[in-house]
Structures
1.
Amino acid sequence: MSAYVLRRLIQAALILLGVSILTFCLLYLLPADPARQVAGRTASVDQVERVREQLGLNLPIWQQYGRYLWNLLHGDLGRSYLQRSEVTTLIFPRVPATALLMCGAIFFELVLGLTFGLVAALKRNSALDQAIMAATFIFISMPAFLLGLLLLYFFAVHLGWFPIGGYGQFKNLILPSLSLGLLGAGWYAQQMRSTVIEVLRQDYVRTARAKGLNRLRILGLHVVPNALLPIIAMIGLDIGFFMGGAVLIESVYGWPGIGQLTWQAIQQLDIPIIMGVMLIVAFAVAMGSLIADLIAPLIDPRIKLR
Amino acid sequence: MSKRFTQRFTLGATFALALLASTALAGIATPGHAEKAKDGGSYSIVFKDDLNTLDPAIGYDFQNWTTIRAIFDGLMDYKHGTNDLVTDLAESYEVSPDGLTYTFKLRKGIKFQNGREMKAADVKYSIDRVVDPKTQSPGAGYFTALKGYDDMVNGKAAELAGIETPDDYTVIFHLTQPDATMLHIMALNFSYVVPKEEVEKYGADFGQHPVGTGDYAMKEWVKGQHIVLERTPYPNHPGRPHADQVTIQFGLEPVVQVLKVQNNEADLTGDIFPPAKFLEVTKNAALKDRFYEAEQLNLNYMTMNAHVKPFDNLKVRQAVSYAINKERLVKILNNRGTVTSQVLPPAMAGYDPNFKGYGYDPAKAKELLKEAGLEKGFETELYFANTDPWPRMGQSIQKDLAAIGIKVSLKGLDNAAFNGIAGKVDGTPMSLTEWYADFPDPSNFYTPILGCASAAEGGYNYAHYCNKEIDKRAQAANAIADPAKTAERNAAWSKLFGDIIMQDAPWVPLLNPNRYTLRSDRLEGDKSYFVDVIHQPVPYEDVWVKK
């Protein structure tokens, strides 16, 4: 067990290294010039060059990366080019907001996705099943910001049930979580539907039915636990999936999380922030899937961690 | 003979006048606004993005600036609601006849928000700090005319030789060449006075913990959520500010900003007014008194790069200048701007109301292309940032140029990438961009975007235009530092910009976009504050809330 965790942690470190190299190279390849962004519109060419030297942007890319990695190993994510603050002090205070949003989103996607997936499977090929499946396709394919804006208009502006954006209270959390959760709920409903249909055909379900167990107990004891297994692995990966959505949803709702910061940083080409966010998200994804893998044997004793 | 031109304003008189003017205007211009300014209470302004910094040495956009202006002051300021320079922390100033020495007498008893009195050494420290390369200030370039600038930026000196403080209340600036924009620069955020002890306490994080002499002190900044400004315990401006507290809220989409202000849940929209709500709000009679249209020191224009063929040919550039239907561009923007044919916007000194430029004449354009030997047209590219309205404007221009045989492919890039490629000497044949002046002086439309120094690789002169003769004339105009000769100087700039367009045609000036602001029922103030060119969306300290 501990050997397994250690191996996975080493893997995670390698993934982070890979992500950092890839992001660094991609940002380096952009035709934009961060030194000019920092030096300002009226800076002379000399001034821009001086800023470039100070930021170390005149060095060859491998040297720039080496510096970055060295600082990173000392816990230093660098300073934001435009906000002129430590990247760590910009990112970490925003982590709780994004974590809260993710929890809300996971809650909604599980509750909605699993319920509707189960209902669709039990009523398969009915009109209800078809309606649910059509809805899941819409949620999966709809751009996150559009869904966010539609929900905002309908529930906050039109009906006035929720505040228009904002942060800090429970009622602020619902719409953003729902917007993000619905995207995942679509996937989960489809996944749940097909696994439940699969499980319902298994011999042990037939046996349970034959020995006269009532429907609810069959579902609760045999069907749902077995159908949940692939779902748990999915939750681990959700963190990465949600991060992409969070960038947009946080902007729509004014949610003060990492996504909002990232959006601003991308627009201003604030490379240290973009790098820092990428690393933190990659770390969260690696940890999420590790935890999911550690939970799996608790639910299904057949799974062995190797 | 030594002539001394001195401008003296006593602050009290200025304020009395301003107050008188504002009450008088309020009574005439906007009925229902006739009440006197009320003190106390609080109001909120809503924006999409959080601010980057409140360090006056670093902040470089409208959103930063207005908040920085509320927290800090400079030696000079603009009379709020106008473009007129007035003294602020300075009590008076003198300019030597050769324009090389500026002597400022400081007001006594000015206090920072930490309670310490501001003195001449603080003024010197603040400007030294901006020029110090370690600060990486985007405003350092404004001080090139000061003696010792080169030594300081090259690391040979730790302070500017050109700033002298003979006593606690006198600051003397020595210039290497006359610079007529000096007083404007003294009103720019980069010259704002900061207390050394606070800067040293917070180091590079001073921008998150600003302390100045302004009417409002920062009480709280919750990143991504809001900034709260509170009336300073050490007021330096009699009669200001009105509201006790101003909350700057972040994270709201422009459309949501309008909805909130419309419902009186917030008091003022901060960002560019969203096209989606524009028609609805303008047609809503109930909002008429709460909705403001303002001119800006802004131009949208298209550059043509003479380093890229066939734009090296003047006739081709002129042909393109004749071919653009600017009326349609303005229509595309829901009429949120005015067609123009010249470089300077109408709100800027030096604007020439009689200047005709090229006008819209496709037949003439075709004729010019024929003369250039390009009767069959040619293929080229137009670059712009891929945020609204640039792509829509690009499509309209593409259509116009197709009509005279020029096949344009449109290249929309994200803003940073666009600026990167347009900065290259032969990067873009044509580009679509805009310029907001940093201060209301015509030179600001030349030096950074048309001057030879900015034409180098990486400059903001996207046409990479450089005419040595014009550059000399610009320098000469900038050297007319005598405030009494302002009219002569503005006329020189006016002629210069006209000559650039008619003789060289590096740009097609397109339109001057307007700015729109919506206020809540309870936020009051003279109309001039809501259409202020310098303080956008309003000078925070001058508006007030109805009880």
Note: Chain B is about 30% helix and 20% strand.
2.
Amino acid sequence: MNPTPSIMSQPSSSGRFGEFGGRFVPETLVPACQELEAAFTEAWADPIFRTELDSILKEYAGRPSILTECHQLGARLGIRLLLKREDLNHTGSHKINNVLGQTLLAKRMGKKRIVAETGAGQHGVASATAAALMGLECKVYMGAVDVERQALNVFRMKLLGADVEAVHSGSRTLKDAVNEAMRDWVASVESTHYCLGSVMGPHPYPWMVREFHRVIGNEAYAQCQERIGDVPDVVVACVGGGSNAIGIFSGFVDTRARLIGVEPAGGAAVGRGQPGVVHGMRSYLMQDEYGQVLEAHSVSAGLDYPGVGPEHSYLASIGRAEYPTVTDAEVIEAFQLMARTEGIIPALECAHAVAWISREAPKMQGQTILMNLSGRGDKDVGQMMEILG
Amino acid sequence: MPGLDRLETRLRASRDAGRKLLVPYLTGGLPGWTDGVRAAAANGADVIEIGLPFSDPVMDGPVIQEASQRALDAGATPVTILEEVRSLDVDVPLVVMCYYNTIHHPGHQRFAAMLASAGIWGAIVPDLPLEESGPWCAAADDAGLSTIMLAAPTAPDDRLPLVCARARGFVYSVGLLGVTGERTSLAATATALARRLKAVTDVPVIVGVGVSNAEQAVEACRVADGVVQGASVVRRFMADGADGVGEYVAEVRQALDRGI
């Protein structure tokens, strides 16, 4: 076991990471959030729950995920590049870690149904999968724009028995899918668990989802020790809500490694936002001069989100992690670069991390970079086919 | 208990005189909305709730979502709406309904001052639960504004007195599990929660969310001190303008007066 990291410890009793986080939800949802907090606290301290979850992660999701060294791309960029292969998990992304934890918890709480939001569809597919496994009813809300650009994942969810509802309000992307999932939860809270897909939302979600993804960082830390006998110089992940980044950061936050969360230029909550409150949390948020939430624009549906998890806002505010941006053009280039040099098609989300590494490599010559390859790019092939003509 | 809250004082006086309280809601910034407010005021409203449109209204159903979007598309901001409030000249207390980021962004004290200087009496903030309400409530108290707290059907018994203790003006008793919008019948939770609240507080208890017509308003008021009429008013305003609001508010007013 790694020692408990001190910078990423438990939030305050009001769910704060520094001045970020909290529980800004309608009164109707307060008791449910309190119940969830109590249930998670109790389950997470229960060896039986932990053993059962570990067993499912191993035998169903395929953990531990491997560490792959990118020899060609590394040599080309003048760095040593290691990938944490979350793309090889069952359902093709890191999202499965969180949903297996949450659905196991939902069953323990006696819930019969889960609702989830999804952007790229990865969390929706993972939720539909876990619901099928656990015998729970599942409804997934997805922005109408994303339903169109991620048609394959929509069909996958339906195959898995989930009910997928296209959301036509607002920007018709991830932000609006979260709104609609919350509206559903307000009406169904007694029977339903909201299976939130990232380290965002009201307390206890940012903390709970981080704990379910801590396995990424724990494994990666041990694998780096074994492979390079040290921690990497830099740990890089893409950031929308920020769950895969939090997961891998958790293993290195108390080491000397630089932590880099790469945001899309069109959805840079930390880079372009100010503290605000939406979706239950106080965090950096892209908003106008009156506090209206701005629409994010990214080639990647999974990062098309104007906010960010509150712990990222905290890590940014204390200077522990950096949150640079990359453009869609850089991402499209990086997507192809990784495919051609390594034979790995990354999710468009992860291509953000590749793009940053590729751009910044001249300043990191000879360094070891660990990147969280949080999802595979199969879902993006159709979209790339259109983009590349 | 600070006994000097002017909204509560006024509503208690009406209630104690045997009147059921009627609180129509209208989304600010819709084209012609001020005429809708005047029509509501002229036809028997006791308080009028003005919605400040927000990009992400998680407690609102389709009708108020659409109204918010239309108002935003028309260029409405809190500043333009409050500017129009100054010109309203109605003799009914006005409160705003706004999501918390609308307050958080300018800052608690600045926003409270904006409301107070426009002649607003109070605020309803549906995504600001009791535990997070301290800084806003303090600023509102200092500015002489009533913060109307919401109580939900999911609240356990020990939570309701805490919510009521912080409530100023009235307690907004959420009528059902769900978002704003019209329903074919009044949910059983509407009267059940109002009854639980009446047992622990003397602050006026007004039921909102899912009270959809005059008949349901009368039903809710067999227990509660009054009702909010949200989606039913907004829908009529968007379809028939201020006249539709005036006729509907008059109809509910008459039903409440008869029903007692």
Note: Strands of chain B lie at 21-27, 48-51, 94-97, 122-124, 146-148, 150-151, 171-174, 205-208, 226-229.
